[in-house]
Amino acid sequence: MGSQVLVPFRGCEDSHRHLKIMGDLGQIVPMKYHPRDVDSIKAVMAKSNVVINLIGREYETRNYSFEEVNHHMAEQLATIAKEHGGILRFIQVSCLGASLSSESRMLRTKAAGEQSILKEFPEATIMRPSTMIGTEDRILNRWAQFAKNWGFLPLVGGGSTKIQPVYVIDVAAAIVNSLKDDGTSMGKIYELGGPEIYTVHELAELMYETIREWPRYVNVPLPVARAIASPREMLLNKVPFPLPTPSVFNLDQINAFSVDNLVSEDALTFEDLSIMPQRLKGYPVEYLMSYRKGGPTFGSTVSEKMRSSEM
Ligand SMILES: NC(=O)c1ccc[n+]([C@@H]2O[C@H](COP(=O)([O-])OP(=O)(O)OC[C@H]3O[C@@H](n4cnc5c(N)ncnc54)[C@H](OP(=O)(O)O)[C@@H]3O)[C@@H](O)[C@H]2O)c1
């Protein structure tokens, strides 16, 4: 859009370097901040007229709870944006399925974050993307890594839960289109799901197909998956050292994936933002080729193998 983009970051100076080349010289401006230092947030917002809150995390750490990251930080941003007086648009990136009654604590805190934002900044727009797929996604990449390391993929509850994964580029386009149209503000909530509904198992098949490995699964019943994932949650604030980041056995995600998570019938969607979301098969999952044994062009997909054995 030609806008200057201020990118607040914490941690390492190098982590955001790749973003700088996504704009002209001086267009992408990383600014160091600390989420618990209000003045540093105000400094980032000082010269802005739009705030897009992308802060969120699907697991807790000993430093940050779900409540702080997904609810209180969002609320704080909305309060500061309101006080600022010149913030015209506030976009909150939430999650599909955010609900105060969700099985998942993360989704409950995302819902609480939405409510607080709309209280502080009623003109805000809420985007609720479904599971996002793209180069740095944390679902197909994680599954592919697990499958390569262990030779199988655990399927919680047989992988029958229905989801509506969405290409990350479409979500970004939805945010941009929303900024171009003030009619999308005033507390509107958009549910952003892809054009196809997959079961978790079907999505895993797409991953296996793309990495050209024969699909191997171990079915893990829901209570067993919860039991495997629970020790991290129980130990989190009880041991004096950080615990490893959860991979496929993340208790909260297991809970989130225990029920279908689809765009509701009466929701505002991509269509209301003039976007036709892309199917995942093909370009959106091509980054998975890097997991192919022998390199990106090596071997053939399962369907290619089946076709050639039929001939
Ligand atoms: N990925 C999905 O499938 C998906 C689906 C639906 C909704 N969402 C939502 O989309 C948004 C963007 O997510 P993403 O997938 O792009 O993940 P991401 O790359 O990990 O981005 C999350 C951002 O939140 C920041 N963050 C997390 N914990 C923080 C903390 N304690 N203090 C300050 N900053 C913190 C991270 O900063 P650091 O880099 O410094 O950690 C990072 O910039 C999030 O709100 C997420 O909940 C994601």
Q: In words, what does this structure look like?
A:
The model has no long low-confidence stretch (mean pLDDT 93). The chain is 36% helix and 14% strand. It has helices at 17-20, 38-45, 66-84, 105-120, 140-150, 168-180, 200-211, 222-235, 251-256, 302-310, and strands spanning 5-9, 28-32, 50-53, 89-93, 125-129, 132-133, 153-156, 162-163, 166-167, 189-192, 198-199, 217-220. The protein is globular, with a radius of gyration of 21 Å. The protein has one domain: NAD(P)-binding Rossmann-like Domain (Rossmann fold, 3-Layer(aba) Sandwich). The chain contains ten helices and twelve strands. β4, α4 (105-120) and β5 form a beta-alpha-beta unit. It is α/β, with parallel strands linked by helices and 311 residues long. A four-stranded parallel beta sheet has the order 3-4-5-10, with helices on both faces. Bound molecules: NADP nicotinamide-adenine-dinucleotide phosphate. NADP nicotinamide-adenine-dinucleotide phosphate binds next to loops. Residues 36-193 form the NAD-dependent epimerase/dehydratase domain. Pfam families: Epimerase (PF01370). One of its GO terms (cellular component) is mitochondrion.
